[in-house]
Write a structure and sequence with these properties.
The protein is built from two helices and 17 strands. The protein has two domains: 9-65 and 136-188, Glutamine Phosphoribosylpyrophosphate, subunit 1, domain 1; 69-132, Aminohydrolase, N-terminal nucleophile (Ntn) domain, beta-sheet knob region (Penicillin G acylase, beta-roll domain, Roll), CATH 2.30.120. The strands form five sheets. Strands 6, 7, 8, 11, 12 and 16 form a six-stranded mixed β-sheet that branches. Strands 3-4-5-13-14 form a five-stranded antiparallel β-sheet. A two-stranded antiparallel ribbon has the order 1-2. It is mainly β. It is elongated.
């Protein structure tokens, strides 16, 4: 019986005349069959996340870094509070299959969370949970890296394409020259007044992140 896995799996091993790179994303571990694939993507992400070309194979698993925090936001007239002053929220309207949703966020990138039934309505006054994750700040870098990674020819080229400020991940590479590369990516927020366990009031700016530390 196959052992139960709590996460994804990536491993590289030397064969007699080649390097074998294996990966099994967590979602794929529920499948009852084994598939040989050239590339792997994900719903909603039009990029090649894992795969191989004639020179190199690449894959990653989630890095389990504590990168995101919840905050409390005081909202009034579509403005959020900072140290006694109110600043305008940024709104973004998204329409999918004829259904419109409005998302609000602060200048720091705190995304205001609302119940699904209220997504199509203007935000009401009140105190809301808001979430911030640092990898949203590097969306352009992620698109650039994942667009060019499938064309890398060596482990070194692949590692140079993976910026250190991306989503916390364990990247693994192997090329036909016999090289194996591992790279941990991601950053964790610098929290001046907490450990991130509980949401803090964001209207007190001393509770906000003061930066990020590369892992």
């Amino acid at each position: 019986m196959e052992p139960q896995s709590l996460g994804s799996l990536s491993q590289a091993s030397f064969g007699r005349s080649c390097i074998i790179l294996q990966w099994r994303p967590r979602i794929a571990s529920q499948l009852k069959h084994t598939y040989v694939v050239i590339v792997t993507s994900s719903p909603g992400i039009p990029l090649i996340l894992m795969g191989r070309n004639k020179d190199i194979s690449f894959t990653f698993t989630y890095g389990m870094l504590d990168m995101g925090d919840y905050f409390l936001e005081n909202i009034k007239d579509q403005n959020y509070e900072r140290d006694g002053h109110f600043l305008p929220l940024t709104s973004r309207t998204v329409t999918v299959n004829g259904k419109t949703s409005i998302f609000y966020e602060t200048a720091e990138g705190h995304i205001i969370e609302r119940i699904t039934e209220h997504f199509s309505l203007d935000i009401a006054d009140g105190v809301y949970l808001a979430v911030r994750v640092p990898d949203r700040d590097e969306e352009e870098e992620l698109i650039f890296m994942q667009s060019f990674l499938p064309f890398a020819r060596t482990v070194q080229e692949a590692q140079e394409l993976v910026p250190q400020t991306l989503l916390g991940s364990n990247y693994l590479f192997a090329d036909v020259a016999g090289n194996i590369g591992y790279q941990q990516t991601g950053s964790v927020p610098l929290r001046p007044t907490s450990n991130g366990l509980l949401p803090l009031p964001a209207w007190n700016s001393s509770n906000l992140w003061t930066g990020r530390s590369l892992f």
